[in-house]
Structure to design on (288 residues):
């Protein structure tokens, strides 16, 4: 069996349909339990109850970056091997990535106000995240603006390659410039910097929950795109007769 | 019930905004999928 078998829409629909209930159940379980567990954690001695925002902010930021990288891989598969399912999967992932980026930006602003004394700062990580959000919007707009589906997949694939610079920057900006308000890795393993297990375990669970939630939405939305493509092909065939 | 202290409004705003956005993308995805499935089925049944 080869992974390229899933480039066949029929095979993809059959396999994703069978997997979807389990992915949805796992996503619901991990996200709900993780968020409730995180909400019930004790107050931090420095940040008070605002520490509970980490259970939304970090998983959303993690997914915002990694969804773009998933779109990059899917776009490269489309550009190199011309598998339609991969182009549709990239298209399907973009709105979910945009929502994750928006959650990371908004929870960051809400958290930053009491902790940093400001909603926003033109800090390297915050700025690169804002640019990443704009790339998500541009990517979706480009899909909507180009009528021919293959041309749209080509153009958005190239845009995805360019935007990957900001996806990587948003992760490593703190290390590159070593300035700004945002701290480095939230899950540092360095001695003395490691997060307490009280917060770490619910955070791991919400990260898994957000990943499974993305996977569930990706499968649902890719199935939607395949159905729309199939309907468009049927209508085009009828119009030619 | 958990203690939120003086930052209760901040924490609740963060959870409220995030859960609303997550709910919106979930509902939109499910509705769009159901619509695409219905339209394709109707077309195939007609043809």
């Amino acid at each position: 069996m080869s992974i390229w078998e899933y480039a066949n829409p029929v095979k993809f629909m059959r396999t994703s349909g069978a997997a979807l209930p389990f992915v949805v159940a796992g996503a619901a379980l991990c996200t709900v339990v993780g968020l409730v567990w995180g909400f019930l954690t004790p107050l931090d001695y420095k940040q008070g109850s605002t520490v509970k925002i980490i259970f939304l902010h970090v998983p959303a930021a993690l997914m915002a970056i990694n969804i773009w990288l998933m779109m990059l891989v899917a776009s490269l598969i489309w550009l190199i091997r011309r598998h339609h399912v991969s182009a549709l999967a990239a298209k399907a992932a973009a709105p979910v990535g945009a929502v994750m980026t928006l959650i990371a930006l908004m929870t960051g602003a809400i958290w930053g106000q009491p902790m940093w004394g400001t909603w926003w700062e033109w800090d390297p990580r915050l700025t690169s995240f804002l640019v990443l959000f704009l790339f998500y919007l541009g990517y979706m707009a480009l899909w909507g603006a180009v009528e021919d589906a293959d041309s749209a997949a080509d153009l958005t694939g190239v845009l995805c390659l360019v935007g990957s610079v900001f996806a990587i920057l948003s992760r490593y900006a703190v290390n590159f410039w070593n300035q700004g308000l945002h701290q480095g890795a939230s899950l540092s393993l360095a001695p003395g910097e490691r997060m307490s297990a009280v917060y770490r375990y619910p955070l791991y669970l919400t990260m898994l929950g957000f990943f499974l939630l993305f996977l569930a939405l990706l499968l649902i939305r890719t199935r939607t795109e395949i159905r729309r493509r199939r309907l468009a092909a049927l209508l085009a065939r009828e119009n030619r007769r | 019930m958990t203690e939120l202290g003086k930052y209760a409004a901040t924490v609740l705003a963060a959870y409220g905004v995030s859960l609303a956005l997550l709910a919106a993308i979930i509902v939109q995805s499910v509705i769009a999928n159901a619509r695409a499935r219905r339209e394709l089925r109707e077309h195939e049944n007609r043809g």
Remarks:
- Residues 8-46 of chain B form the longest helix (39 residues).
- The interface with chain A takes residues 2-8, 10-11, 13-15, 17-18, 21-22, 24-26, 28-30, 32-33, 36-37, 39-40, 43-44, 47 of chain B (CB under 8 Å).
- Chain B has a mean pLDDT of 93.
- The helical segments of chain B are 8-46.
